Amino acid sequence: MDVRDGMEKLLIIADDFTGALDTGVQFAARGARTCVVTDPAYDFARAGEEVQVLVLDAETRHLTPEAAYRTVFRAVGAGLAAGFQYIYKKTDSALRGNVGAELSAALDAAGAERLHFLPAMPKTNRVTRNGVHYIDGVPVAESVFGQDPFEPVSASAVAEIIGAQSDTPVVLHPLGEDGPEARPGIQVYDAETEEDLRRIGGRLGREELTLSAGCAGFAAVLAELLELNGPAPGRPELAPALFVACGSVNPVTLRQMDAAEAEGFTRVHLTPVRKLEASWLESPDCAAAVSSWLEDAGRGRRFILDVNDPAGRNDTADYAKEHGLTTEDLRVRISGQLGQLVRRLLDGGLDATLLCTGGDTLLALTRAVGTAELIPVCELDTGAVLTDFVYRGKIHHIISKSGGFGEPGLFIRLARTLGAGKEEEAASC
Which whole-number Å values give the CA distances from 334 to 168, 274, 276, 325, 422, in the listed order? Predict the structure, then answer.
């Protein structure tokens, strides 16, 4: 693809899969031709000329800071060489991962003086005030994200988070400033409302926004400012059943599953062997389990396959200790196993709209089915992104959700939207 044809195009570099989708959908919902790819070494020339927004899931969240820097530096350089006029470095809305290393990499690769970083996402109660990032009114390091088992956030001041991995100067911009200082470095902006994001973006203008960063919150504003539009997307027909494949251990998702189970969802907890041992996938017990889940899901139309232990149990931790498995071993094995199980369910004829929680789970599924490109369609709820992918010549519809997003009743609401609840509602984007 050569984008030097006058059409303005945007490259988004995300650190995980659900983040790539909930950012890309901000543009897709406006009719912009948007494609999400999962190969960090993706050749931009493969993207069609019609693609206006290309979202690369660089999968850098779990890398070392050094490896994350190299990956983002390479992606930004390749994007600029291909002629992309705008680069957006998507970060986690809770500032997990390699924020400092990745922002510095983008700035260095672009050879720019400034990168504008707006980490707030007000519609999910994630705001930046006096340079401190808050989740639901709590400094992020004191929130559930401070106890994340894989990438805990150890500081709440954005400059401190960046400074832990980067020597790049950080310039803080409080609300109400007359105009941004022209000092070089990573520019961090306070924002507490959607209007704050719009006002800051409008003040910066297109020229300054050639290199920017943030989460899905500012991405929605960027879509407006860059006028990346197209015909309104239509909503596909969705199966009137919801099958949840939960690979997240976030307490937010746990509360959603508890609420759904109390509402009548069937919920199956995977045992340590079933979610950790690849050999089990080839066993008669696996075949029987998949058949049983398909039957239960078809009968009840609301089903949860959960990698978490039942409340009050520590089966997985005990198994890991007994077999010498690290936390990273658990993350990789569980997501990979769940991806393979979902593929077997699809092969078995799963007739349901699939909901995946957690970026690792979704990425494992795409690898299991052999696809590297997905098309975001719309948000069915805040942070719940409807996406299409092709497997064995058939288009499948999947809802992705970050583990930390959503109210307790989200799964119940989505089931009802699909017509799989007690009160049927028309699904709309």
Answer: 36, 9, 6, 12, 32
Task: For residue 295, count other CB atoms closer than 10 A to its CB.
Answer: 11
Cα angle 297, 235, 198; round to 5: 115
Q: What is the end-to-end Cα distance of the chain in Å, rounded?
A: 30
Compute the C-alpha angle 376/95/128, nearest 5°: 100
pLDDT along the chain (429 residues), means of 10: 61 94 93 90 79 94 96 96 94 96 98 97 96 97 92 96 97 84 91 96 94 96 91 84 95 96 97 97 97 95 97 95 95 95 96 92 91 90 90 92 91 93 59
Which of 126, 78, 68, 74 shows the shortest CA–CA distance to 100?
Answer: 68
Q: Report CA-CA distances (Å) from 332 to 62, 203, 288, 326, 387.
A: 10, 43, 25, 10, 23
Instruction: List, in order of start, the domains of the chain with CATH numbers.
Output: 10-225 (3.40.50.10840), 242-418 (3.40.980.20)
* Token representation of residue 265: 């969802």
HSE of 411 in the Cβ direction (CA atoms, 13 Å)? 33
